Amino acid sequence: MSRTLVLVRHGQSEWNLKNLFTGWKDPGLTDKGVEEAKDAGRRLKAGGFSFDIAFTSELSRAQRTLTLMLEELGQTGLETIRDVALNERDYGDLSGLNKDDAREKWGEEQVHVWRRSYDTPPPGGESLKDTGARVWPYYIHDILPKVLAGGTVLVAAHGNSLRALVMALDGLTGEEIVGQEIATGVPIVYRLNADSTVAEKQVLEG
Ligand SMILES: O=C(O)[C@H](O)COP(=O)(O)O
Where are the transmembrane segments (predicted)? Predict the structure, then answer.
């Protein structure tokens, strides 16, 4: 019984590099992002991982990251399910703005609250709580059954859709999640108990 869930944030995107709020916008990966994705795949391969199914978002940076990981793993034909529920948090009116320009306009504190707080949404966008309200039910209904059936499941998604998932899996509070960052291309491995609680968590850092 593997009951293993692996979460990977996409590699660096063009807009990560340009320091722009991205959300549901759809830039591709940079060369560095491609390398991060391949590296994540190599690390998983070195760890002996072989996946039964993969899940990703409707955004190309996560999909490409998944493809590159699967190439490294020798699993290019793996069944893959794409769903909008795993998309990045919608950054609303901030999408496309430079993060430093936003700090100048609205102040460091306000921008930090929009980026990292649990329940304060950016203007016209989703809070982490809103993001969790679509990610968590999707996890429960679509992803978790595959894990509990004994599978090894790969999820390639985004900084904030994964923060929402990690918050629930790790049982973090709204205050604790503020300090939680998800690095690009670094696999987070969860082994689950039969009752769906977390038995073990491991971060596969380089
Ligand atoms: O959507 C974005 O801009 C990034 O992918 C994540 O942004 P954050 O670091 O502001 O959460």
Answer: none
